[in-house]
Amino acid sequence: MKVVVIEDDKNIVDVVSMAFEFRWPNTSLLSALAGKEGIDLVKGESPDVVILDINLPDINGFDVLKEIRKFSAVPVIILTVRSDDEDMVRGLESGADDYVIKPFNYVTLLARVKAVLRRSEKVSIKDGFNTIFGSRLKIDFMGQKVWVDDHPVKLTPTEYRLLVLLVKNENKVVTHRQIVEELWGNGPGENKENIWIHVRRLRKKLHDNPPDMVLNKHSSGYMFKSR
Which of 119, 148, 164 is the last residue of a domain? Predict the structure, then answer.
């Protein structure tokens, strides 16, 4: 496994490095002390996961995340010193898969990493190679590729797993609890607002506005409507 840490505090980089050495000793961990350097590192190394600090000396982490999302769907965990809902929401809306609040212990960080890596794994489904849902959406489950109106759509691992969960249960309500268990386990997705943020990002990428595919069902959950 290859990990990129974009963090200007060398002490935190050392803590993260020790955590991975303890849990996954064969991990290749690369670090950058500034945002622009981190973007180049992610682009050149194609890591399995990125750990990104919000407060960087040159450009802020939100801008770094937006740049990464232009060329990569790699799972990204943001680090923030504040439990400020605005920061968390902004990070998730910018394309983060999860977040950890400083100060953190290595157990929490590794649990978050394990969760986002699980989401990036291939999702098995019995419906063959290509499946068309309604007249607009097509999914290649083997290659984890998505098209809307015959145009490719780039989804993050979290967005893709959310979409698969919904289409596997097409025309049935998927509850908030089911979404939490599938995507976050006991992570921050338990907050309904965080689920809504990921649904909103998914709808935007599917050009589902006003929504006629991913529907909100009376505050109990969401449903994918194929017809």
Answer: 119
Please indicate, yes or no, if residue 173 is contained in any of the structural domains.
Answer: yes
pLDDT in tens, 40-81: 999 999 999 999 999 999 999 999 999 999 999 899 999 987
Q: State the SS3 of 60-82.
A: CHHHHHHHHHCCCCCCEEEEECC
- Regions of the chain with pLDDT less than 70: 82-85, 122-130, 185-191, 227
The answer to whether residues 98 and 157 belong to one domain is no
Contact (Cβ atoms closer than 8 angstroms) between residue 71 and residue 57: no
DSSP 99: E
Q: How many whole angstroms separate alpha carbon 56 and alpha carbon 182?
A: 32
The enclosing domain of 142 has a CATH number of 1.10.10.10
Residue with tokens 């098995």: 124
- Domain hosting residue 6, numbered range: 2-119
Indicate left, alpha or beta for 218 from its phi (over 0: left) and psi (-120 to 50: alpha).
left
